[in-house]
């Protein structure tokens, strides 16, 4: 029977970072993967999505500068863009696996299941380890409605060879907003249906409303307070039905959240507790079995399920197992970005939480739309809401085409507690988004 110091289950960002760090620290490590090596982010998540976002950004920029020396790009050559996307995704699985092997890590293809607290089984083969790390991520949730077999998910969207003439998204979170904007820029007729009237729930309500307004101006249709009950095939298209709604479309993408991958892991055999939201962990990312850790999307936690969070947790576990980390995990401010059109980004204390403690926090709203950096590209909207506590920036919420860049600078200001006085002593390259920090935080 094979025996390792550490076995990592799942080869996504969490599994990659933890296994590589542990192998570099001299541990004998194996990684088990049941699907594509590299996990969600580079195969069917962040990276392919961001390649498609580049096409959307080009369409947006040309539309914004229409009549200002440029002609708009009317639509995207979808098969061409997908071919470009595949140059990123096709090599990922083999290169991720080879990258691990090059570092002396054993790679095992198959589905891992705990037999007891010190042993898993993969394809009938028993593997023992002193420590296990569960990094199995999440998968798309499927609405339990009549006709659910007709529903596509985000992974299907990112593989679509032809762009449907009409596409409908159910759900209004990160995935629906981002993919709706991409499909709209590529020339599809897009509808987003949500079961209540509060899309992108974790983000500032006013900025979300402004984003919805901007997306509506581009032709995206939002339908709120509609709970789809049935999908049926009608020739080449699909009929969506609810008590108060009926519409035909060519493609339905379900984007109603993601579920932790844990049902097939045999967690009961290893004494690992879990719930609907994921594997339960303590402040050291240890499960209820102290020799089994968990990181990334599969963990039940307050932090959002994002790649940098999975990587941060994986690094922490590796440091702890290598003897360098003794305290419980302390997360820095984590930026969240919706790569839509425009982009919505958020970091630190929310405006909703700040509003509950007015004696502690103040919120300053800044409209940047007329600032040079936005006027130069004729941005329709550029707004920020800044949360201050004790004179320092503690939260930032931004809506603009470049919010993804600005939010990382602001995350640094928050994490390092950089004061307005310190910022005013800096010289930035000009004119840049970073240079705006001095005016923004004045
Ligand atoms: C469409 C989309 C867009 C996204 N965009 C962004 C973005 O822009 N920025 C961002 O930060 N995040 C984004 N995310 C989220 C990001 O992809 C995840 O947070 C990240 O991949 C989590 O990493 P992980 O290692 O925890 O899990 P994953 O990357 O999901 O990897 C888990 C791996 O475990 C494997 N596995 C599961 N069960 C078993 C088993 N029993 N045995 C063996 N292997 C198993 C799976 O096959 C998978 O490969 C996006 C997600 C999606 C779906
Ligand atoms: N840019 C990024 O960082 C990025 C992009 C995509 C995904 N992600 C990650 O992936 C996760 C999953 O994304 P997502 O958009 O699927 O989930 P989400 O949690 O962001 O949004 C799901 C939406 O579906 C709605 N919903 C739930 N049940 C429903 C129902 N029965 N009918 C209609 N609507 C329903 C919810 O109210 C919510 O608005 C995100 O939470 C995030 O962690 C991140």
Structure description:
It is built from 14 helices and 23 strands. It has 442 residues and is an alpha/beta fold. The protein has three domains: 202 residues, FAD/NAD(P)-binding domain (3-Layer(bba) Sandwich), CATH 3.50.50.60; 109 residues, 3-Layer(bba) Sandwich (FAD/NAD(P)-binding domain); 100 residues, Enolase-like, domain 1. Strands 1, 2, 3, 4, 5, 6 and 18 form a seven-stranded mixed beta sheet that branches. It has a five-stranded antiparallel beta sheet with strand order 19-20-23-22-21, with helices on both faces. Strand 1, helix 1 and strand 2 form a beta-alpha-beta unit. Helix 1 packs parallel to helix 9 and helix 3 packs antiparallel against helix 4. The relative contact order is 0.12. Bound molecules: flavin-adenine dinucleotide and nicotinamide-adenine-dinucleotide. Flavin-adenine dinucleotide binds next to helix 1, strand 2, helix 2, helix 3 and helix 9.
Provide the β-strand percentage band.
Answer: 25-35%
Main β sheet profile: 7 strands, mixed
Task: Kindly name the structural category.
Answer: alpha/beta
Low-confidence stretches: none
Cofactor: FAD
Domain FAD/NAD(P)-binding: 4-314
Binding site for FAD: 50, 297
Family: Belongs to the class-I pyridine nucleotide-disulfide oxidoreductase family.
Give the secondary structure arrangement, pairings included.
Layout: E1 2-9, H1 13-24, E2 29-33, H2 40-44, H3 46-64, H4 78-89, H5 92-102, E3 106-109, E4 112-116, E5 119-122, E6 125-134, E7 138-140, H6 154-157, E8 166-170, H7 174-186, E9 189-193, H8 205-217, E10 221-223, E11 230-234, E12 237-242, E13 245-249, E14 251-254, E15 258-260, E16 274-275, E17 278-279, E18 292-294, H9 307-321, E19 336-338, E20 343-348, H10 351-356, E21 361-367, H11 372-375, E22 383-389, E23 392-400, H12 403-415, H13 420-424, H14 437-440
Parallel strand pairs: 1-2, 1-6, 2-3, 6-18, 8-9, 8-14, 9-10
Antiparallel strand pairs: 4-5, 5-6, 7-15, 11-12, 12-13, 16-17, 19-20, 20-23, 21-22, 22-23
Helix pairs in contact: 1-9, 3-4, 3-7
This protein binds flavin-adenine dinucleotide and nicotinamide-adenine-dinucleotide (NAD).
InterPro entries: FAD/NAD-bd_sf, FAD/NAD-binding_dom, FAD/NAD-linked_Rdtase_dimer_sf, Pyr_nuc-diS_OxRdtase, Pyr_nucl-diS_OxRdtase_dimer
Domain Pyridine nucleotide-disulphide oxidoreductase dimerisation: 334-436
Family: Belongs to the class-I pyridine nucleotide-disulfide oxidoreductase family.
């Amino acid at each position: 029977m094979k025996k390792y110091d550490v076995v990592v289950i799942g080869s996504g960002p969490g599994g990659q970072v933890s296994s590589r760090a542990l192998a570099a620290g001299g541990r004998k490590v194996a990684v088990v993967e049941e699907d594509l090596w590299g996990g969600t982010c580079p195969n069917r998540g962040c990276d392919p999505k961001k390649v498609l976002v580049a096409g959307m950004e080009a369409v947006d920029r040309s539309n914004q500068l229409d009549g200002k020396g440029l002609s708009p790009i009317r639509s995207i050559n979808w098969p061409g863009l997908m071919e470009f996307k595949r140059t990123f995704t096709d090599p990922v699985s083999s290169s991720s696996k080879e990258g691990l092997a090059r570092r002396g890590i054993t790679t095992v293809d198959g589905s891992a299941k705990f037999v007891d607290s010190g042993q898993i089984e993969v394809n009938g083969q028993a593997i023992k380890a002193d420590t296990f790390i569960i990094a199995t991520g999440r998968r798309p949730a499927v609405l339990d409605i009549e006709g659910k077999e007709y529903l596509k998910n985000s992974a299907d969207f990112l593989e679509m060879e032809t762009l449907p003439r009409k596409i409908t998204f159910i759900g209004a979170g990160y995935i629906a907003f981002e993919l709706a904007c991409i499909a709209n820029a590529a020339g599809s007729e897009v509808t987003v249906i949500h079961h209540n009237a509060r899309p992108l729930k974790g983000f500032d309500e006013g900025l979300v409303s402004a984003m919805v307004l901007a997306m509506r101006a581009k032709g995206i249709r939002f339908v709120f307070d509609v709970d789809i009950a049935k999908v049926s095939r009608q020739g080449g298209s699909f009929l969506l039905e609810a008590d108060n709604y009926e519409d035909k479309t060519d493609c339905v993408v379900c984007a109603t959240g993601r579920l932790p991958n844990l049902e097939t892991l045999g967690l009961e055999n290893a004494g690992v507790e879990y719930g609907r939201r994921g594997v339960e962990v303590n402040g050291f990312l240890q499960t209820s079995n102290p020799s089994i850790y968990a990181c990334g999307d599969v963990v039940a936690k307050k932090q959002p399920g994002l790649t940098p969070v999975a990587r941060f947790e994986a690094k922490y576990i590796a440091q702890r197992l290598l003897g360098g980390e003794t305290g419980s995990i302390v997360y820095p401010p984590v930026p969240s970005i919706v790569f839509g059109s425009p982009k919505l980004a958020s970091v630190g204390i929310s405006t909703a939480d700040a509003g509950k403690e007015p004696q502690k926090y103040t919120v300053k709203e800044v409209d940047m739309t007329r600032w040079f950096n936005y006027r130069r590209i004729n941005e329709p909207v550029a707004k920020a809401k800044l949360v201050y506590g004790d004179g320092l920036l503690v939260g930032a919420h931004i809506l603009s085409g470049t919010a993804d860049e600005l939010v990382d600078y602001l995350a640094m200001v928050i994490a390092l507690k950089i004061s307005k006085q310190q910022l005013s002593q800096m010289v930035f390259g000009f004119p840049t988004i970073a240079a705006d920090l001095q005016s923004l935080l004045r």
